[in-house]
Amino acid sequence: MRAGDRRPTLADVAAAADVSIALVSIVMRDAPGASAATRQRVLEVARRLDYQPDSRARLLRSGESRLLGVVFAVQHPFHDDMLTGLYDAADKIGYELTLSAVTPRRDERTAIGGLLQDRCAALVLLGPQIPAAELATLATRLPVVSMMRGVRHSAVDVVRTDDARGLHLAVDHLVALGHTRIAHVDGGRMVASAERRQGFRDAMRRHGLEAYGKVVVGGYGEEDGARAARELLIDPPTAVTTFNDLSATGLLDGLRRGGLDVPGDISVVGYDDSSFSRLAHIDLTTVAQDIDTMATLAVSRAVDRIAAAPVAHREIVIPPRLVVRGTTAPPPLPP
Amino acid sequence: MRAGDRRPTLADVAAAADVSIALVSIVMRDAPGASAATRQRVLEVARRLDYQPDSRARLLRSGESRLLGVVFAVQHPFHDDMLTGLYDAADKIGYELTLSAVTPRRDERTAIGGLLQDRCAALVLLGPQIPAAELATLATRLPVVSMMRGVRHSAVDVVRTDDARGLHLAVDHLVALGHTRIAHVDGGRMVASAERRQGFRDAMRRHGLEAYGKVVVGGYGEEDGARAARELLIDPPTAVTTFNDLSATGLLDGLRRGGLDVPGDISVVGYDDSSFSRLAHIDLTTVAQDIDTMATLAVSRAVDRIAAAPVAHREIVIPPRLVVRGTTAPPPLPP
DNA sequence: TTTCACCGCGCAACCAGTAAA
DNA sequence: ATTTACTGGTTGCGCGGTGAA
Fold first, then answer.
1. What does the pLDDT look like over A169-183, one tens digit per residue?
2. Element (H, E) at B23
3. Strand D closer than 7 Å to the CB of B13?
4. DSSP A270
5. Is B303 in contact with B320 (CB distance < 8 Å)?
6. Å from B39 to nearest chain A CA?
7. What's the pTM value of the predicted model, to 2 decimals?
8. Beta carbons of A280 and B83 less than 8 Å apart
């Protein structure tokens, strides 16, 4: 009774139950073709022997894998949230997920390569960074869904949030509160950074405030937000929109250390509605991406591509929504 | 040239190169038994056909899987760090990792079940929460390594940090700075919480300070730390040790909102040296777990068990180290 | 009684590779 | 270098037996 004495196979169960291998297979798959009595008996034996099907062999023969590969990055809270949603969505339609992580020392190509060997039926990539051409090549092999990043290529499906609209919501909210001098801390070279930056600029222009809309170079993490805070403290605006929540928390802290009160002196809006942004002590006003909808659509999109003949390229753009919490308020009265 | 027209197999390559299937297999595995010229030609054809080996079929036949299953939890920054280390360690000895996540809606049993189907050769569990008896049962199936959680069972290997010692380091550091009234915010029912709490109590006793060592119920996240802060603010000690960095950041924020200066009025020590704890604006003094060593040992332990006959149970306990940053200082002078 | 569809089941081919002869 | 025998399953087909028409 230890690892090493070989796991039981269909053959073992068949021998013990005195039936053919194929019949055991039928019972295990709950497929038609076995009497209730036999079914009962085989299941009993299988349980006694602690039989567990070998998915490798199963998939090898049946061709279909019902397995989706997901590439995500460690230390991205938003990716964790999306994984949660993807598991739910896949479960619901009887698909399995197999995960491959991008880490500081393991790049995206490696992560994808690992999944390709596993013969997943399709790939779901969270915020892929590799060139669009490479994604397109990949998509000739198997269905590829890119999340959070737009890819202009007919073979690659896209599920993303309307990021420009997200910034519109943020700016509209701030303008409604009375702000005019609003800055944006962008995401540097991150995926979606350009869309959000442009969304900010468009919204400011729409309000006739383009002269007051400063864009500060930021990045993905808290340190980027903190750095932006130091820059903004020189001549602080009354409100700031950010690339993501992580950056926003760094910004928050930096601004407060610089002596400003949030939201009394300055308002801050995050992006992602990460799980920590709703914590009481952070309580960040933020733009929420609809994770469950995105996850469901990404999965069903992938499955469609697996099942069907080549379908038309689709870019699904989900509207974001603004979650107003405690880091935004009307601007301070002029002295 | 689209997904669906079946990926090339060994047979396709063999036909195209006009050799036997087995020979192609030999070439692809870089095994002896093929001439340099043929090798060259076969590789050329394989590349042209865009051939990729089917790892499932390969593993099925060869029996060996060189595949380690890892169960981790989303939204645990420390797990992300450990994943990074595990990938490195596995890479180094030619093993693959397959990941299965625990999410708010996907429990540990489900996560483990998914991996079992994949026929991994061994399982590495990050801070498993399921009962020890269940782990023991699991270990009769395949090698199991529990990380960050001690399991008293001969079949389950353990790689963990000496958590009691971690708290000793923290308390010693604070006492050396002159603190006497020190509180500990524990991890509630989290794995390792009891060890850290006990380590705190022992250290305080060793310094003759047991009368000054208050333990506050905490938990895993920032909100738990924030809640503890509210409790501590009633009659603040001059220093606090915590269950982890996440809780410590919540605590930090709560204390500062309560009007205390850190580290002027009160010192705070975290646990884990999570990637965010070293950010300039957090700059948390913390107890670091030796991630790379732990990851390397966990992987090699698992591999040993796979290869060898049942070996003796081993619990590997790694010493932590204190990382002194900006949240600890001597206590304020008495008024 | 014959005819026949149907049912539970076993046989053997097959999936994509590997290993020994 | 090829041949042959596997790995652990899945699947199409056909077999004998049964009950109804």
1. 999 999 999 999 999
2. helix B21-29
3. no
4. E
5. no
6. 22
7. 0.90
8. no
Cα A190 to Cα A168: distance, rounded to the nearest angstrom: 19
Whole-angstrom Cα distance, residue B111 to residue B116? 9
In 3D, which of A304, A194, A286, A289 has the Cα closest to residue A248? A286
Give the CA A178 to C1' C17 distance in Å: 68
Confidence tier at A2 by pLDDT (50, 70, 90): very low
Q: With CB atoms and an 8 Å threshold, state whether A4 touches B309.
A: yes
Summarised one tens digit per residue, pLDDT across range A250-272 is 999 899 989 999 999 999 999 99
Cβ neighbour number for residue B285 with a 10 Å cutoff: 24
The residue to which tokens 């469609």 are assigned: A304
Q: Which residue has the tokens 């992560």?
A: A111
Q: Which of residues 30-59 of A touch strand C (CB under 7 A)?
A: 32-35, 37-39, 57
Which chain C nucleotides are covered by protein, judged by CB under 7 A? 7-12, 14-21
A159-169 pLDDT, tens digit per residue, is 999 999 999 99
Residue matched to tokens 């039989």: A51
Q: Residue B307: count other Cβ atoms within 10 Å of its Cβ.
A: 11
3-state secondary structure of A317: strand
Angle of the B21-29 helix axis to the B10-17 helix axis, nearest 10: 110
Q: B54, A75: Cβ pair inside 8 Å?
A: no
CA B152 – CA B204 distance, rounded (Å): 27
* Average pLDDT taken over every residue of chain A: 91
- Interface contact flag, A83 B96, Cβ < 8 Å: no
Q: How far apart are CA B221 and CA B219, in angstroms?
A: 6
Domains of chain A: 10-53 (1.10.260.40), 66-162+291-318 (3.40.50.2300), 163-289 (3.40.50.2300)
Q: What is the DSSP letter of B201?
A: H
Mean pLDDT calculated for residue range A81-93? 95
CB A21 within 8 A of CB A46: no
- The protein footprint on chain D, as nucleotides within 7 A of a CB, is 1-4, 6-12
Q: Which residue, chain included where needed, has tokens 């043929």?
A: B38
